[in-house]
Amino acid sequence: VDRKVDDALWKRYSTARDTFNRRRGSHFAELDRERSGVRQSKERLCERAEELSESTDWTATSAEFRKLLADWKA
Asked: What Pfam families does its record include (predicted)?
């Protein structure tokens, strides 16, 4: 392949690769933001569970722990 054609093909390849890399980077950045949000939610659930851990109101606390578990799984 002559130099002119090779350069044109390389430019096409490079453009496609750069486009893919930008889209991939955006995708993983979005996943990181989602994971961060999930982590913060689970941190709050842990804090609430720790608050409830000393309770002696067995019925109400059991119900609250069931709700926390449902929120954890959501």
From this structure: DUF349
